[in-house]
Write a structure and sequence with these properties.
The protein is mainly α. The chain has helices spanning 2-22, 29-52, 59-88. It is flat and about 55 Å long.
Length: 99
């Protein structure tokens, strides 16, 4: 029963996230990405804490913690790359006349 509850919560979170994100105007995507980068940083810290508190004699806990840290770091780094690309779209192309 606990697994079904977790799946139900995951499905509700996915539907809610999709509905919220799809209604955000385009002009607010950059601040939204900045906020999500903050959340990804918190997730990364949580994954590192979970990995640090894993039992060293349980390899499954270590593997899951390592994968969580790896995915959290990739997600945060990818978010910053996307934000940088979005901010570059707002910069003017003419700087000093050189191209």
């Amino acid at each position: 029963m606990e697994g079904i509850s977790a799946l139900y919560i995951f499905m509700l979170a996915a539907i809610t996230g999709y509905e919220v994100i799809s209604r955000v105007p385009v002009i607010l995507h950059t601040p939204l990405m900045s906020g999500s980068n903050f959340v990804h940083g918190v997730v990364l810290v949580g994954a590192m804490v979970a990995l640090g508190s894993a039992d060293p004699n349980e390899p499954l806990q270590l593997v899951i913690g390592f994968v969580a840290v790896l995915l959290g770091a990739a997600n945060a780094a990818g978010g910053y790359v996307v934000t940088e690309r979005m901010l570059a779209m707002f910069k003017s192309g003419a700087k000093g006349g050189a191209k």
